[in-house]
Amino acid sequence: MGQGLAQRRRSWPGWAWLSGALALLGAGCPAGQCGRGAAGVGPLSEEERRAIPGVIAFISERAEQKDVWLVKPTGEETQLTKSPEEDDFTAAPAPDGKALLVIATRTVRGLHLEQLRVQPLDGSAPVPLNAPRARSRNPSWSPDGRWLVAESDARNFSDLVKLEPRADTAEQRLTTAPEGCFEPAVSPDGIEIAYVCSKEGDPEIYVMRADGTSERRITAFYREDREPRWSPDGKWLTFISDREGRERYYVVRPDGTQLRPLSGGAVKSDERELAWSPDSKKVAFVERLPDARSRIWVARVEGGEPVALTDGKSRDDAPAWSPDGKYLVFVAERGGEVDLWLMRADGSRQTRLTTAKGPDWLPRWFVPR
């Protein structure tokens, strides 16, 4: 099992959809549970959109290559990166709101190469953090923005390394497992790092201190556990597992206790694309359903049945919360176009945000400085 994951990881892009953008699965919505039928039909008013905080970074394919763009809730857009020779992918906003981590990819003589860069929001030149290589992905910031952790193949198939956000920074190697470690997530207080490692034969969730010491194993199951994500308050970790024969999200304390599934009996199919609400009380996630459709749900961490926000009649994916937790941005394929959409956190007032030709996807919502 672990070896099988390692083989897949060698071709994993590390970003949603890069190997099958938006090819999701979905079906109808339980009666009385669809946000699209909630009070307040029709799009958000211009006045309400002007009051929504923050800006959304996303990937656009409106040119031949993939570029990073910014869009305000009002719909005002700015192109942040532009390079015909490469594809750029949004990774994570800097904690100070002044820059984005971008993963630039290109193919040179048949070799796929990746490079982490810090892209200032003022449009100035990006700062490369490493030489182009086959694996440089899944970065996670420290809360003070002074360092970050990412996957690297500089010395092994996939190590976790710690580096500073400046040019030509030296990498501190945190893991050395030959089977590979993946998907680091720095805790909100910056003290610990959650991650996936296959060194025990199966992909499991681990937590270590930020200097790579005091490792502890959080999960122990013969199926695949992966994609750890901290709640904003640091009290919970979520991860996805196929231990029930389908992809499902679970929540667990950072010490490995109180492990349980997040979604109730209403969700029957594979789950993906989880996003924590800013107050740590809820998560949004996507359910795959038949006929290339998908549906967005919200579940309360304290328990109870989840609520469907979209009706599954289209592809609705990749939810991201507004900084105040009152809205969600998501990707939808409706009318043959793949665009960003806004909705209130209850699923009402669904509003198309981007309208350019070519897919727009992978939104990241933050407050710029």
- Identify the quaternary structure here: single chain
Provide the residue-averaged pLDDT: 89
* Assigned CATH class of the domain at 26-54 and 272-369: Mainly Beta
* Structure summary, number of beta strands: 28
Q: Proportion of β residues?
A: 35-45%
Low-confidence stretches: 1-39
Radius of gyration: 20 Å
Note the gap between the termini: 45 Å
* Biggest sheet statistics: 4 strands, antiparallel
Number of helices: 2
Q: In terms of topology, how is this protein built?
A:
Layout: H1 2-9, H2 46-50, E1 55-60, E2 67-71, E3 77-79, E4 87-93, E5 99-108, E6 111-120, E7 127-128, E8 136-141, E9 148-152, E10 159-163, E11 172-173, E12 181-186, E13 192-197, E14 204-209, E15 216-217, E16 225-230, E17 237-241, E18 248-252, E19 260-261, E20 271-276, E21 282-289, E22 293-300, E23 307-308, E24 315-321, E25 327-334, E26 337-344, E27 351-352, E28 360-366
Antiparallel strand pairs: 1-2, 1-28, 2-3, 4-5, 5-6, 6-7, 8-9, 9-10, 10-11, 12-13, 13-14, 14-15, 16-17, 17-18, 18-19, 20-21, 21-22, 22-23, 24-25, 25-26, 26-27
Please supply descriptive tags for the structure shown above.
single chain; 2 helices; 28 strands; Neuraminidase; 4% helix; four-stranded antiparallel beta sheet; disordered N terminus; mainly beta; 369 residues; globular
